[in-house]
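Each field is listed here:
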Amino acid sequence: MWCFTAKKAGTYDVVLKSAVKESVQKTVHIVVEEVPSLNTILKDEFALKQGSTIKYYVSFEPSNDNLSGNVKIVNRINNKEEILSYTIAVEDTFYSFNLTHVSGDEFNLNFKLSFDFTLFLYEDGFGNQMSKVTPEFLISGSWEGTSGDYIISLSLFETKEVSFSINKNDFSDSKYLSCSFSLEKKNDGYLGNLIASENTQDPFIELPLSFNVDKDFTSISISFIYNGTNYSTNLVKADY
C-alpha cells in the first residue's frame, strides 16, 4: 500500500520501485485539480428521470457567498414548478440544504450534496442521485419506431453505450447488436453516430451509422440497409 498527498494542483509522476528487485518499477501518472467551488458545481442543471421521462428538472442560481441562492424545481410530468431559496451547511459527511418556499407549487423536496459533488434529491425520505443535464443524458433511454415489417428499438445510455435491435412483426426474424455512440451539436439539433466498440460482434448493419436528433430530444431519425433493403424511421421515446 502507498499513499500520495498533493500540496497543490498539477501533474505528478510517481515512480514505484520493488524493494526486492530494483529493476522492477512502475510509473503512475497523477493529475491533481483544484477543488471546485460550490457555485461552480451548482451552475450546472440537474435532472431526475422516471423511466425514460424527465420528472424533475432543477436549476440553481447561487449567490456570491457560495452558500446560498435560489433554486427552481420543475416537475415536467405534472407541468408544475416551485421556486425556493436555499442555504448550505457543511455536515460531517455531506453538504445539507435548508430550503424555504418562495413561489409556485410546494413539492416538499430536499437535496444533499456529497463531498465528491454528487447531488441527491430527497422525496418522501428517499434519496435519488441526480444527473447533470448533458446531451448524453437527454438522449438516454429507450426509443422505438417501425419501418416495413420491423419494429426498431434503440436504447442509449449516458455511458455512450447502445443496444440496437430490429424485430419482425411476425417474430420470424430478429437481430441485435451492442455498440457505442457519439453526438455533435448542429444548428437544428444533433448529429449522432453509432460506432463499433469492443462489445460489437457480427453487426447486422454497416457501422459507423449516422442518425439525427431534433433540438428538443423528442425524435431520432435513422436509416440503414439490412439484407439489401433500406429501412428508415423516426424513433420516439418509449413509454417504459
